[in-house]
Design brief:
With 291 residues, this protein is α/β, with parallel strands linked by helices. The protein folds into three domains: 7-72 and 125-195, Rossmann fold (3-Layer(aba) Sandwich); 81-111, no CATH class; 200-282. 47% of the residues lie in helices and 14% in strands. The chain is built from 15 helices and nine strands. It has a five-stranded parallel β-sheet with strand order 2-5-8-1-9, with helices on both faces. Strands 3-4 form a two-stranded antiparallel ribbon. Helix 1 crosses helix 2 and helix 11 packs across helix 12 (216-230). The longest helix is centred in the last third of the chain and has 15 residues, at 216-230.
Length: 291
C-alpha cells in the first residue's frame, strides 16, 4: 500500500494490521519514514518493540529482515560469509589445469558461493525491506561501532567482489531492553522512543485486537491482574505479550473470569520465573481480588 502521509493515517493503518501505536510512537515512525532515519526503541521486555517492525513490514509490503543480536556476535555472522563446503567441492571438481587458471580461482569467490547474512541482505534489498536489529544491547561495543558505521553509509565492501551500496536505505528498527547503556553516537544516529507499558484501557484494546475471540470481561480482568503483578516485587514483570498469552490460555481452558478453577494452573503463561511463580501462587487471591 502507499505510505501513510500523516500520523493519524499511520496510526489507523497500523491498527488495521493489528498494532495499536500511541501518538508518540506513531509520530516517531512517521518522521522516520519521511526522513529515512533509523528508529531506536527502548523499553521493558514484552511491550511490543519487535512487533513494530513486523507491523511496518506488513503495512508497507516490505520484506522483514531480522538480525538477532547476542553476546559475541561478530561482523561476519551479521554481514556475509563464504560457503567453504561448496568451494571445496568445486576445487575438487576442477582439473589441475583449471586450478592454475586465474579466472577459475576468482570464480570461487563469486556470488554463487556468497552466503548473505541479514545486514548484506538488507543493503541489497534497500527500501524494499524493513531491517530489524533486535536486542542490540546484547552485542558488544565493537559490534555497536560497526553498526553505527553501516547505518551512516549503508555500504558494505566485500574484498573479493567490491562495494555493495543501497541506493535507498531500508527502514531500520533497532530494539534494546537496556541490559546495558548504548553509546551516545548510536543514539544520535537514530530517532529515539521509549516504549513503556500501556495504560490499562489501551492494554485492553490491544488484547481484544490480538485475541478477538475472548470476551471483553475476561480481557479487563486479566489486564487488571497483570497490572497488580507489575506492582509486585517480581524478577521479571509480565509484558503485554504475556497478557495476551494469559488471556488466550484462559480462553482455551474455558475460563470466563479469574475465579475459574484452572487459573492457578495457567500462571506459566504470564509468569516466566520460578521464584516469581511461587510468590504469585502464594498470593493469588490478592492478584485476582479485583475480578
Amino acid at each position: 500500500m502507499a505510505r501513510p502521509e500523516s500520523v493519524p493515517e499511520l496510526t489507523e493503518a497500523l491498527r488495521r494490521v493489528g498494532y495499536l501505536a500511541d501518538r508518540g510512537l506513531a509520530t516517531t515512525l512517521h518522521v522516520a519514514l519521511q526522513l529515512g532515519r533509523p528508529v531506536l526503541l527502548e523499553g521493558e521486555v514484552g511491550v511490543g518493540k519487535t512487533e513494530v517492525a513486523r507491523a511496518l513490514s506488513e503495512l508497507l509490503d516490505r520484506r522483514l529482515i531480522r538480525l538477532q543480536c547476542y553476546e559475541g556476535i561478530d561482523t561476519q555472522q551479521a554481514l556475509y560469509e563464504w560457503d567453504y563446503a561448496r568451494q571445496m567441492l568445486q576445487i575438487r571438481a576442477l582439473s589441475e589445469h583449471q586450478l592454475t587458471d586465474e579466472g577459475s580461482v576468482d570464480a570461487l569467490f563469486g556470488p554463487r558461493f556468497l552466503v548473505e547474512r541479514p545486514l548484506l541482505e538488507a543493503v541489497r534489498a534497500g527500501d524494499r525491506a524493513v531491517l530489524l536489529v533486535d536486542e542490540v544491547d546484547r552485542a558488544d561495543d565493537e559490534f555497536e561501532a560497526f553498526l553505527l558505521e553501516l547505518l551512516s553509509e549503508f555500504q558494505i565492501t566485500i574484498p573479493e567482489i567490491g562495494p555493495v551500496r543501497a541506493e535507498q536505505p531500508p527502514l531500520v528498527i533497532l530494539t534494546s531492553n537496556r541490559t546495558r547503556e548504548l553509546h551516545d553516537a548510536l543514539k544520535r544516529r537514530c530517532l529515539y522512543h521509549w516504549v513503556g507499558f500501556p495504560s490499562p484501557e489501551r492494554e485492553v484494546e490491544i488484547v481484544l485486537v490480538r485475541a478477538p475471540d475472548v470476551s471483553e470481561r475476561l480481557a479487563r480482568s486479566v489486564v487488571a491482574a497483570v497490572n497488580r503483578l507489575r506492582a509486585m516485587d517480581l524478577a521479571k514483570a509480565p509484558g503485554v505479550a504475556e497478557t495476551v498469552d494469559w488471556v488466550n490460555t484462559l480462553g482455551v481452558v474455558g475460563a470466563e473470569d479469574l475465579h475459574h478453577e484452572a487459573v492457578p494452573n495457567t500462571l506459566g503463561a504470564v509468569i516466566k520465573d520460578r521464584d516469581d511463580l511461587e510468590l504469585v501462587a502464594g498470593d493469588l487471591d490478592r492478584v485476582t481480588s479485583g475480578d
